[in-house]
Amino acid sequence: MTGARIPAVVVADIRKHYGDLKAVDGVSFTVAEGEFFGILGPNGAGKTTTLEIVEGLRKADSGAVTLLGENPWPRNTKLLPRIGVQLQASSFFEKLTAKEQLQTFGSLYGVTAAKAVDMLELVGLTDKADVQENKLSGGQRQRLSIACALVHDPDIVFLDEPTAALDPQARRNLWDVLRAIQARGKTIVYTTHYLDEAEILCDRVAIMDKGRILAMDAPATLVRGLDAPTHVVLQKGTLAPADARAIDGVEQAQEDEVSLTISTRKPAPVLSALAERGTLDGLQVRTATLEDVFLDLTGREYRA
Amino acid sequence: MTAFKSLSAAMIKGFLRDRMTLFFAFVFPLMFLVVFGLLFRDASDDKTKIAVVGDGPVVAALDKTGALELEKYDNAEVARQKVHDGDLPALVVAGGSGVELTFAASDQVKAQTVIGIVSGVVDRINLAESGVPPAFTLEAKPVEDASLKPIQYLTPGILSWAVSISGVFGAALTLVSWRKKQVLRRIRLAPVGPTAVLSSRVLVSVGTAVAQGVMFVAVALTPPFGLQLTGQWWLALPLLVLGTTAFFAVGMLVGAFCRTEEAASGAANLIVMPMAFLSGTFFPVENAPGWLQAVSNIFPLRHMNDGMLDVLVRGKGIEALVVPSAVLIGFTLVVGFIAARVFRWED
Ligand SMILES: Nc1ncnc2c1ncn2[C@@H]1O[C@H](COP(=O)(O)OP(=O)(O)O)[C@@H](O)[C@H]1O
Ligand SMILES: [Mg+2]
């Protein structure tokens, strides 16, 4: 059924250069309706530029974008009610309360004041309705900003680093909001520089660096494709490194001040061997993550 | 709610909740009005008061000059004592064909003024009596402002100035802050035209200007200031509107070039303050040197001010609006056009 419908977003080989700097250097991707798509990468990778070209806020030097079958550039007023955008820097009217922000943004789309205020509940800000925007915490501001992007019930939602600069608790609260939005059947395109977060939230991710997409797939598929060893970590002294290396399937065993780290591509037999010996003190198992994928793709450690 | 109405409401709330802008739109100009209004209250009320005893054509003519305030006495001795005590600078005793002028020698300036006026009047009457046509004639015309009490030109001047402050600053700061905070880009992503956004902001400025007008005139009308409105003072309304649009256009131009609020208010000050001084906010332009008057014609504030003076305190009618309105509309169109050309949605 989904196969017959047109994709929500189609991006074909877009480029944007600022002088010698290739901010976006030939990016293509497709997002299906209802999909949660993440664009990941370190700061300066070109995520915002890509997103804003897709939203129709910037003009690409070349390439094509189609949103719900329409071209977003030049400003396409037919398309605008169907997309919701949260810009990287949150944009609010001065001195207005959370409720008034929503009502004002809603009115730009012909949404009634009562309906606009309903959005507060989705993002858990009902008790902050009468607080001025500049008196909200960082996480509350981000949630309000997302509510403003959703106020007119758009089909596609673009969120640019909604979780940046938030403390872990606020980030988790926001994840719940994002999942709730997806549950409403929205297509979400979002950017982040937290790879771990994208791994948890996204159906599919595109890893970007220096204006290019290096890899694109479901996070689990990307990690599996890496064929990276699993790290089994034990408390130091549980087992001598030499004994660990003797276990079948162990590729490497290294000890530092606190722990012994065993690398293996066959974690199941190694773990049962360890269990047989009763040497599982302080056991931690670390599988590869998107950070390892990034390291593999770029040859350098991921640093946001 | 329509986008226009809710944007207007949003901006009015933002305006009313911002103490800084409220201060500069209302309190700051009002302070000038109060200080100057009280400071200059008696400045032009300085008609010299003299004592007069007796009656006749000379006293009648003296009264008609309007230059002296005559205090009648029946008893010449009482009046002479007043001069002697320094209460009054001079005494005129008129009787028959003689006029006797007694003056206090202590205040030479006042004495000379009085002597000049009285002898002028006496000479004129003599000339008229003799029936000889005068060899030279003097034609003296009053400059209009000479008859305006300070509060009469301060109120229209400071009101126009206040409108220019709120117009220029309001437009420039809103534009810069909305661009900086990405509100402009966000609005651009909504299906509303720029007209709704722009006109709602202009409406707020016009509302501010009318509120300023009501407030300043109300204060100036109170007894300590004693403003007297003449004739068709309500013709000030169209001037308030047209002045606002002209200054709004200036603010849009300033806002287009400045990246930060600080830069924008600095630039706005650089424009508004000199313009205020040269446009007759604090003193009548007619007192300025000719070249300065010519220069001041380039400022919309000068024309708004002229129009305001005419309709508020000079008792002129709708014909006094023609030139100021034409200039303000032209100014709005030209500057507004330039501002639209250099307008930026984002930095
Ligand atoms: N308007 C612009 N002018 C010049 N350079 C820009 C502009 N916008 C972005 N860039 C540059 O393009 C690169 C990509 O920026 P951006 O898309 O914001 O990255 P990200 O969102 O991934 O952090 C950066 O090096 C940035 O400095
Ligand atoms: Mg970015």
From TrEMBL, chain A:
<keyword id="KW-1278">Translocase</keyword>
<dbReference type="GO" id="GO:0005886">
    <property type="term" value="C:plasma membrane"/>
</dbReference>
<keyword id="KW-0472">Membrane</keyword>
<dbReference type="Pfam" id="PF00005">
    <property type="entry name" value="ABC_tran"/>
</dbReference>
<dbReference type="InterPro" id="IPR003593">
    <property type="entry name" value="AAA+_ATPase"/>
</dbReference>
<feature type="domain" description="ABC transporter">
    <location>
        <begin position="9"/>
        <end position="235"/>
    </location>
</feature>
<keyword id="KW-0813">Transport</keyword>
<dbReference type="InterPro" id="IPR003439">
    <property type="entry name" value="ABC_transporter-like_ATP-bd"/>
</dbReference>
<dbReference type="GO" id="GO:0005524">
    <property type="term" value="F:ATP binding"/>
</dbReference>
<comment type="similarity">
    <text>Belongs to the ABC transporter superfamily.</text>
</comment>
<dbReference type="GO" id="GO:0016887">
    <property type="term" value="F:ATP hydrolysis activity"/>
</dbReference>
<keyword id="KW-0046">Antibiotic resistance</keyword>
<dbReference type="InterPro" id="IPR027417">
    <property type="entry name" value="P-loop_NTPase"/>
</dbReference>
<keyword id="KW-1003">Cell membrane</keyword>
<protein>
    <submittedName>
        <fullName>ABC-2 type transport system ATP-binding protein</fullName>
    </submittedName>
</protein>
<keyword id="KW-0067">ATP-binding</keyword>
<keyword id="KW-0547">Nucleotide-binding</keyword>
<dbReference type="GO" id="GO:0046677">
    <property type="term" value="P:response to antibiotic"/>
</dbReference>
<dbReference type="InterPro" id="IPR050763">
    <property type="entry name" value="ABC_transporter_ATP-binding"/>
</dbReference>
<dbReference type="InterPro" id="IPR017871">
    <property type="entry name" value="ABC_transporter-like_CS"/>
</dbReference>
From TrEMBL, chain B:
<dbReference type="GO" id="GO:0043190">
    <property type="term" value="C:ATP-binding cassette (ABC) transporter complex"/>
</dbReference>
<comment type="similarity">
    <text>Belongs to the ABC-2 integral membrane protein family.</text>
</comment>
<feature type="transmembrane region" description="Helical">
    <location>
        <begin position="233"/>
        <end position="254"/>
    </location>
</feature>
<dbReference type="InterPro" id="IPR000412">
    <property type="entry name" value="ABC_2_transport"/>
</dbReference>
<dbReference type="GO" id="GO:0046677">
    <property type="term" value="P:response to antibiotic"/>
</dbReference>
<dbReference type="InterPro" id="IPR047817">
    <property type="entry name" value="ABC2_TM_bact-type"/>
</dbReference>
<dbReference type="InterPro" id="IPR052902">
    <property type="entry name" value="ABC-2_transporter"/>
</dbReference>
<dbReference type="InterPro" id="IPR013525">
    <property type="entry name" value="ABC2_TM"/>
</dbReference>
<keyword id="KW-0813">Transport</keyword>
<protein>
    <recommendedName>
        <fullName>Transport permease protein</fullName>
    </recommendedName>
</protein>
<feature type="transmembrane region" description="Helical">
    <location>
        <begin position="321"/>
        <end position="343"/>
    </location>
</feature>
<keyword id="KW-1133">Transmembrane helix</keyword>
<dbReference type="Pfam" id="PF12698">
    <property type="entry name" value="ABC2_membrane_3"/>
</dbReference>
<feature type="transmembrane region" description="Helical">
    <location>
        <begin position="198"/>
        <end position="221"/>
    </location>
</feature>
<feature type="domain" description="ABC transmembrane type-2">
    <location>
        <begin position="115"/>
        <end position="346"/>
    </location>
</feature>
<keyword id="KW-0046">Antibiotic resistance</keyword>
<dbReference type="GO" id="GO:0140359">
    <property type="term" value="F:ABC-type transporter activity"/>
</dbReference>
<feature type="transmembrane region" description="Helical">
    <location>
        <begin position="21"/>
        <end position="40"/>
    </location>
</feature>
<keyword id="KW-1003">Cell membrane</keyword>
<feature type="transmembrane region" description="Helical">
    <location>
        <begin position="158"/>
        <end position="178"/>
    </location>
</feature>
<feature type="transmembrane region" description="Helical">
    <location>
        <begin position="266"/>
        <end position="285"/>
    </location>
</feature>
<keyword id="KW-0472">Membrane</keyword>
